[in-house]
């Protein structure tokens, strides 16, 4: 079901507070999600941008003009649906200030949980005069792009980070400002003598793949699977710069719905266990099932998980052998053999 703040975003048009865009105008919609309700008479073309593969596929199913990254060009107006990642929200606002023409309309919306209040504060700090309207448990804000929009964008945008002084990341990616503790624990147990084909499920910006390639330099190939398009692009850059001799392939894929077509000797992963604001252990269990299908007979799975997550029964069901390698106060490293 579409988020209520989708309705919040379009309410200023539906209520007649804002004039409908003219036919032929080009609108870019950052953070778009399926089910957005275009008011009657809304005939402008909407270019939706959504880099998360499951949300992209839902938009694609509704025949939206959807892209995983922003297409080149300028736009007459811009929409922004906020999410829980403050830095990503600010970068998307900066993007709109760059690509929407001077005087063009920007409309953004979000709930309290999505950071609408910090966003309103940011607009005020930058001297951007905006109107706002609360509706459907969220707030919509809108303003015309000032003549110095590009200059404002430079002040607002959050630069890419370099984790451990070598991995490039950006806000919105999982653990964008540090190596998370779970991945570090799994990395400490990766093999030093692996020489087959591996897959990194939920590879993020490439940390585990780089460590595996460095610890096992005879690794034949690593395939990286990631649902976040921006994170996968960062992984491409990180592997090219840090392990340039490694043969690697990159798949923008939702492993819960889209199974890998190859078979592997080793699968490594730090699976997600939440969707939106709610914990959902079923996501990790689904990725374990995908790994079981993707492994050759005798192949191994290595994964890290929060200690309380119930993955052991799924491993016992799907694999010939399974067990625990180690644990600390928060995480456990599990293994299984096909």
Helix content: 25-40%
Identify the CATH homologous superfamily of the largest domain. Answer: Vaccinia Virus protein VP39
Q: Can you tell me the CATH class of the largest domain? A: Alpha Beta
Order of helices and strands: HEEHEEHEHEEHEEHEHEHEEEEHEHEE
Strand order of the largest sheet: 3-2-1-4-5-7-6
Give the low-confidence spans: none
CATH topology of the largest domain: Rossmann fold
Helix/strand-derived category reads alpha/beta
- Total tally of structural domains: 2
Radius of gyration: 22 Å
Total number of helices:
10
- The strand count comes to 18
Mean pLDDT: 94
Give the N-terminus to C-terminus distance in angstroms: 37 Å
Give your account of this protein's structure:
The protein folds into 2 domains: 4-156, Rossmann fold (3-Layer(aba) Sandwich), CATH 3.40.50; 161-337, Vaccinia Virus protein VP39 (Rossmann fold, 3-Layer(aba) Sandwich). 30% of the residues lie in helices and 30% in strands. The protein has helices at residues 4-14, 53-61, 86-99, 116-125, 149-156, 181-187, 207-215, 229-242, 281-294, 312-318; strands at residues 26-30, 45-49, 65-67, 75-81, 100-110, 131-135, 138-144, 161-163, 167-169, 197-201, 221-226, 248-252, 264-269, 274-275, 278-279, 295-306, 321-327, 331-337. A 7-stranded mixed sheet has the order 3-2-1-4-5-7-6, sandwiched between helices. A 7-stranded mixed sheet has the order 12-11-10-13-16-18-17, with helices on both faces. The radius of gyration is 22 Å and the shape is elongated. The two termini are 37 Å apart.
């Amino acid at each position: 079901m579409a988020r209520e703040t989708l309705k919040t975003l379009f309410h200023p048009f539906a209520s007649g507070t804002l004039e409908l865009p003219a036919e032929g105008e080009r609108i870019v919609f950052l953070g778009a999600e399926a089910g957005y309700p275009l008011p009657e008479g809304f005939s402008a073309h909407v270019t939706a941008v959504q880099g998360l593969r499951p949300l992209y596929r839902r938009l694609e199913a509704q025949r939206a003009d959807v892209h995983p990254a922003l297409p080149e060009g300028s736009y007459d107006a811009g929409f922004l649906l906020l999410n829980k990642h403050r830095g990503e929200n600010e970068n998307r606002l900066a993007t709109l200030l760059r690509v929407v023409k001077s005087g063009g309309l920007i409309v953004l919306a979000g709930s309290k949980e999505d950071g609408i209040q910090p966003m309103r504060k940011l607009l005020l700090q930058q001297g951007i005069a905006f109107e706002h309207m609360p509706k459907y448990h969220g707030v919509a804000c809108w303003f015309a792009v000032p003549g110095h929009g590009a200059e404002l964008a430079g002040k607002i945008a959050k630069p890419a980070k370099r984790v451990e002084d070598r991995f490039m990341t950006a806000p919105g990616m999982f653990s964008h400002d540090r190596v998370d503790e779970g991945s570090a624990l799994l990395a400490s147990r990766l093999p030093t003598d692996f020489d087959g084909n591996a897959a990194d499920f939920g590879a993020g910006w490439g940390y585990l793949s780089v460590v595996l390639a460095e610890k096992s330099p005879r690794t034949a190939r690593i395939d990286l699977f990631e649902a976040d398009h921006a994170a996968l692009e960062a992984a491409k850059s990180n592997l090219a710069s840090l392990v340039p001799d490694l043969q690697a392939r990159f798949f923008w894929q939702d492993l819960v719905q889209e199974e890998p077509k190859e078979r592997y000797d080793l699968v490594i992963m730090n699976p997600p266990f939440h969707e939106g604001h709610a914990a959902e252990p079923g996501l990790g269990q689904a990725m374990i099932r995908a790994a079981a299908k993707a492994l050759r007979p005798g192949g191994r799975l290595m994964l890290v998980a929060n200690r309380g997550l119930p993955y052991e029964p799924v491993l016992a069901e799907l694999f010939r052998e399974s067990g625990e390698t180690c644990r600390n106060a928060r995480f456990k490293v599990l293994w299984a053999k096909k």
